[in-house]
Automatic annotation (TrEMBL):
Organismal lineage: Bacteria, Thermotogati, Deinococcota, Deinococci, Thermales
InterPro entries assigned to the protein according to its UniProt record, in alphabetical order: 6-hairpin_glycosidase_sf, 6hp_glycosidase-like_sf, Glycoside_hydrolase_63, MGH1-like_GH
SUPFAM superfamilies: Six-hairpin glycosidases (SSF48208)
Protein name, per record: Mannosylglycerate hydrolase MGH1-like glycoside hydrolase domain-containing protein
Pfam families named among the record's database cross-references: MGH1-like_GH
GO BP annotations, alphabetical order: oligosaccharide metabolic process; protein N-linked glycosylation
Length: 428
C-alpha cells in the first residue's frame, strides 16, 4: 500500500490516460481544463516531461478562435454524461465541450518553468504554449467582455468550476427547463446523490448546453442571449493572477507584453465593482440584473490569490476567514456555514476543496498572514491523512465526499510538499 507520498504518486499514475490525467476514475474520465493546470504542477515533481505533456494535451482541444474548452474528449468513454455527442462537437477537430473553465493555465506554465530542472526543455515548451495561452486570454476578452469592463463573463455554471455554488441559484432560476430531452445522469453511479448537484440544477445545465447548440456555438450570440450571465469573482481572480503570470512569462521569453499589461490594468479597475462595502467582501455580479450576488462563498477570497485587495481589504478578508472557520473543524468551507444554503456534503455548497485551499494559502503567505496559510495547509494534510485523496471533504466531520483518488488532491499535496518521500521512510 505504501505511505502517503507513494499513494499520491499512485493516484496520479493510475489516473494517467497517456498524456492527460483523468480527474477521477469513472466519474470524470476525460480531460478537464482547470484540473489539468493543477495536475501538471503535481506531475512536475514526478516526471517533468509528463507535466508539460498534460498542458499540450489540453491544447489539442483549443478552438481556432482561441477558446480552450472545459472538457476535451480525447477518446470516447461510456462512464460520463454529457459526452461529446450531447455537446454536438463530434467531428469538429478534437471533440470538446463548448464552454471554458477557470483559466489557471498561465499560472501552471509559470510554475513548471520556474521549477524546471531541464531548463532548455522548459523554455522550448513555454515558448510553444505562450502564444496558445495568449490566444485563449484574447478570446476571453473578445467573447466574454465585449464592452471592455476589465472582467469577463461566464455563461454556464460549469464554466465557473464551482457548478452548484449557491451564488448561482438565483441566476440559474431564470434558465428554463422546457424541451430538455430525457437523460440519464452517470455521475450518480460514482457518487451519492446528496454529494452531487440536484436534478433541478442539472436540467438547467442541460438546457443551456442545448441552447448553445441551437446558436451553433456562435460565441457572440451566446454572450448576447444566454439567460445565465455572471461575472464570477473566482474565475476573474484566477484570470487576473494568470495574466500576471503570463506577463512574467512574456518578459522571461522576450515577448511583447503590452496587451497583457492592458488587461491587468483594466481588471484592477473592474474588480472595484465586486467589493461590497457593507459586507466588506467580494461577490460575483449578475449581469442580467446588474446586482452583486450576496452569498458568501469561498470564491470571494480568491481576489487575494490575484493580489487585488490592498492591505485594508486583505485585513477584512482575513477577519472573515477567522470568523468562518470558527463554525467548522476544517478550513475552508466553500460556503459560509451560516448561509441558509450551506450543505456540508453537497459539492460546492459547503465542502472543503483542496485547490481552493492551495490558492488561498499561497495568497495568505504573500499577504503575510502566515498563520492562516498554515491553517489551510495543516487542515488539508490532516484531511488527506484521515480520509484519503478525495474530491472534497465535509468541513465539520472531515469525511471525504465525491470522487475517490482525486488527481488534483494528490497533485497539490505534492506541489505543497505536504508529503515527502522522507515521510514514507520507516522511523529510524
Ligand atoms: C461535472 O460533470 O460534474 C463537471 O463538473 C462538469 O464540468
Amino acid at each position: 500500500m505504501g505511505g502517503l507520498y507513494e499513494q499520491a504518486v499512485q493516484v496520479l499514475r493510475n489516473n494517467d490516460r497517456g498524456g492527460f490525467t483523468a480527474p477521477a476514475q469513472g466519474l470524470y474520465p476525460y480531460q478537464w481544463l482547470w484540473d489539468s493546470g493543477f495536475n501538471a504542477m503535481g506531475w512536475l515533481h514526478l516526471d517533468e516531461r509528463r507535466a508539460w505533456q498534460e498542458l499540450f494535451s489540453l491544447f489539442e482541444g483549443q478552438w481556432p478562435d482561441g477558446m480552450v474548452p472545459h472538457i476535451v474528449f480525447h477518446k470516447k468513454q461510456e462512464s460520463y454524461f454529457p459526452g461529446p455527442e450531447v455537446w454536438g462537437t463530434v467531428g469538429r477537430g478534437c471533440a470538446s465541450s463548448v464552454i471554458t473553465q477557470p483559466p489557471i493555465l498561465a499560472t501552471a506554465v509559470r510554475y513548471l518553468y520556474e521549477h524546471a530542472r531541464d531548463h532548455a526543455f522548459a523554455r522550448e515548451s513555454a515558448k510553444a504554449l505562450y502564444p496558445r495561452i495568449l490566444a485563449y486570454h484574447r478570446w476571453l476578452y473578445q467573447a466574454r467582455d465585449p464592452n471592455r469592463t476589465g472582467l469577463v463573463a461566464v455563461v454556464h455554471p460549469w464554466a465557473t468550476g464551482m457548478d452548484n455554488s449557491p451564488a448561482w441559484d438565483e441566476p440559474l432560476r431564470r434558465v428554463p427547463t422546457e424541451g430538455v430531452p430525457p437523460y440519464e445522469r452517470k455521475d450518480l453511479l460514482y457518487a451519492k446523490p446528496e454529494e452531487r448537484p440536484r436534478k433541478e440544477e442539472y436540467d438547467r445545465y442541460l438546457w443551456l448546453l442545448y441552447f448553445f447548440r441551437r446558436l451553433n456555438f456562435d460565441q457572440r450570440a451566446i454572450f448576447r442571449e444566454s439567460p445565465f450571465k455572471v461575472i464570477d469573482v473566482g474565475f476573474n481572480a484566477i484570470l487576473h493572477r494568470a495574466n500576471q503570470d503570463l506577463y512574467a512569462l512574456a518578459v522571461m521569453l522576450g515577448e511583447e507584453p503590452h496587451e497583457i499589461q492592458e488587461w491587468i490594468v483594466e481588471a484592477q479597475v473592474g474588480f472595484q465593482a465586486l467589493w461590497d462595502r457593507e459586507d466588506n467582501f467580494y461577490y460575483s455580479l449578475d449581469l442580467i440584473t446588474g446586482r452583486r450576488i450576496r452569498v458568501k462563498t469561498s470564491a470571494g477570497f480568491l481576489p487575494l490569490f490575484a493580489g487585488i485587495p490592498g492591505e485594508g481589504r486583505a485585513r477584512r478578508l482575513a477577519e472573515h476567514f477567522r470568523e468562518w472557520v470558527r463554525h467548522v473543524r476544517y478550513a475552508l468551507p466553500s460556503v459560509h456555514p451560516l448561509e441558509p444554503s450551506f450543505e456540508g456534503t453537497r459539492y460546492w455548497r459547503g465542502p472543503v476543496w483542496v485547490n481552493v485551499n492551495w490558492m488561498l494559502a499561497e495568497a495568505f503567505w504573500d499577504y503575510g498572514y502566515d498563520d492562516l496559510a498554515e491553517r489551510l495547509r495543516n487542515d488539508t494534510l490532516e484531511l488527506i491523512r484521515r480520509f484519503g485523496f478525495r474530491e472534497y471533504y465535509h468541513p465539520k466531520t472531515g469525511e471525504g465526499r465525491g470522487g475517490k483518488d482525486f488527481s488534483w488532491t494528490a497533485a497539490l499535496a505534492l506541489v505543497w510538499r505536504l508529503l515527502t518521500r522522507d515521510e514514507d521512510a520507516p522511523a529510524a
